[in-house]
Request: fold
Amino acid sequence: MSSALPMWAQHSLRLFRHELRRGELTIICFAIILAVASVFSLAGFSEQIRSALISKSNSFIASDRVLQSSRPVSDDFLATAQQMQLNSAKMLLFSSMVFAGDEMVLGSVKAVSEGYPLRGELLIDKGQGAQALSAPDVGTVWVGTSLLEKLSLQVGQSLEIGVATFTVAGVIEQEPDTSFSVFTQGPRVMMNWNDVAKTDIVQPGSRLTYRYLFAGNKDDIDQFSDWLKPQVLETQRWYDITSQQSPLAQALNRAEKYLSLGSMLGIVLASVAVSVASRRYGQRHQPMVAVFKAMGASLPHIRRLYLLHWSALCAFSIVCGLLLGAGLLTLGLYFIEPYLPAPVTSLGSYPFFVAIFTGVLCAFAFAITPMQSLIATPVLSVIRGFTSFDKDRGILGNVPPVLAVFILLWLFSRDVVLTLALMIGGALAMLVLVFLGRLLVNAGRQVGSHAGQGLHLAMANLKRRGKQNNVQLISFTVAIKLLLLMLVVRNDLLDEWQGQLPENTPNQFLVNVTGPQVDAVEQFLEQNQMVASDLYPIVRGRLAAINDETVTRRTSKEDENRSDRGRQGIGRELNLTWHDQLPKENRVVAGRWFDPSAPQSEVSIEQRLADRLGVSIGDKLTFQIGAQEVTVPITSVREVNWQSMQPNFFMIFSTSVLQNFPATYIASIHVPEDKKRDMRQFLSQYPTISVVDVEALILQLRDVIDQVSIAVELILMLVLIAGSLVLIAQVQASMEERERELAILRTLGARGSLLKSATLLEFVVLGAIAGLLASVAMEVAVYVVQTRVFDMQATWHLSYWLLGIVAGGIFVGLMGLFSCYRLLNLTSVTLIRRTL
Reply:
């Protein structure tokens, strides 16, 4: 069969088999295997973690996807979902007065169809303990505990909603998609979807929210989503758990960024390994190309020969990499499966695609420049020496690998900001690398000239091999920088994230506290030593004008007065408050905070809202509060941590502006488990106070952080392995040149102990310099990641600088000595024979 192949193909395959048996392809093979295995295992691992977290978190929207609208949607949507093997349910949300005898309360009514919830559990207590149920029977309702207390009702009694009467059949113990808004309108009442019509509440102009829930296999959901999205109107919203504006959605999105960041580091390290191996490949094959040309081989013959040779190498390495990656993935999932919030699912096609694409792209993008130099090797190189490979090919020679790294990072993370953060950090490191590296080497040379022979020889070697050492320095720096960045993510950024949810994080909000109740609430909290925020007064108001220019009056996205062409406003009522002290988790970024000693009318605005409205310090805002208007100047702009479990506000006024308006109060508190009964007894005395329990949300947020911590630890192990292999590959790439140098030094009479100490010190100095430069580059990358990706405050990590320098020197030094140990023990005669 081989005789049917062209001569160049036969030569190529024979060369591949020959070098594979001799181990000549070890480095390049292993580099591509490392790239593919790292990407496959990390992609699969991240996919499983992300899938498990989202699967559990979907219970907070009771489904996988939700279509929200202010009006009923076409029945075709539900019919198509059924055809695509999806489960669906309907929900209608509205507010209504609920009556029981002479008592009444504003309730938050939810009408649900059979099958609700599609994800999570709805636990109802009918007097025999909580049990998981679906929709209430027709003619009955399930209610929240607070509604029973406020209306003095018991299970089995009746209440009225609209013109219909219902029997209270159970108490809601757990509602999967409960609202975590601290400004809820009233206690929950849940009825059957088919009972809505007989209440006569739904009338033209009624403020209603329809939600259509969908759940099923991920591929089916994605297919349905692709079909539905083009038909979604501006007045409708199609979302999943990660697209909500909620702490949980933000936590899941941040978790994905953490996993992506860790996985991307593995990709960069694998790319560096391929780059190093590609250069070594070209260097080792120059003599063979020169011989081929000397024997009359044409340039097209050599080009096709090495193209097939490289393609066979790439295919073999990709297959081995997939097998190794599958083993690593299986091992990682075996250890982490007990900690996952959902069972491990079947692996999708994405890890296979991205791993194969990575192998092919890395192999050929990083091979273009070495291949061009290799094929261009002149015949006279056999006599003159093989120096043409190191000829500078200009900036264009670096474009393919840089573009390849960017494509891989973007493909893997799907986050342009995160990709640019790593690329910018790497680019800055490269810009200062050669300059600082040479300065440090020259400074070391001066020190070494006054030191012992070992250090003097080591520094002389570094100086003499300046260009080659720059390549090694770049590889060492990138590897150490990414390892340090991974450690910072694991030890600092995750800890900072965890620190946002300490043990005493507020798990309940008290809402609708009236003025006369404030003293009683504060006294109860103090007596029971409960951690609580301040009680913030709430006044409802609407932004009416900016600098006397009327703003648009849009009450909602679904109800827009398009004839109003004024300046852009907020479009809804705001919860306004006043406070003398700057709230916790708020930071003034422009202007000044209120001066209590000189009371005057002023307002502080949240930073992002200020940017959206295009206002700044000194601008005047006019608010419509009831029948009155108040105009106040902006005196400060605040940065607000919306992740904190405490009341946060877009607008905070000085006390003199709003204190004469009627207000209710709100506070966040942490209620320990042993104090919850006392809290219920206290609130039973004040039926108008509403409680929003966010403990389930807190537990899920902590669960997300815990899962990400475990995932990052396993990813860190893989990145450490990848980084170590990059360093080993780079040291191996310089072995031939070091072999020639050792042969010369041994011939000149250098002792073995001197050569060992000089080799060790050379690598130690090179590693320490790389560690210092890596620390600087890491700090830049961490700054970008903290401020632009995770919305955190930038911090210094100087302790990691020392770690980078010391660990870089020790690790690179020992690894270099170990790699050269066999050469250092060879005799002069053997070394000379090997170099001839």
Confidence is low (pLDDT under 50) at residues 447-452, 554-565. The radius of gyration is 34 Å. DSSP finds 23 helices and 22 strands in the chain.
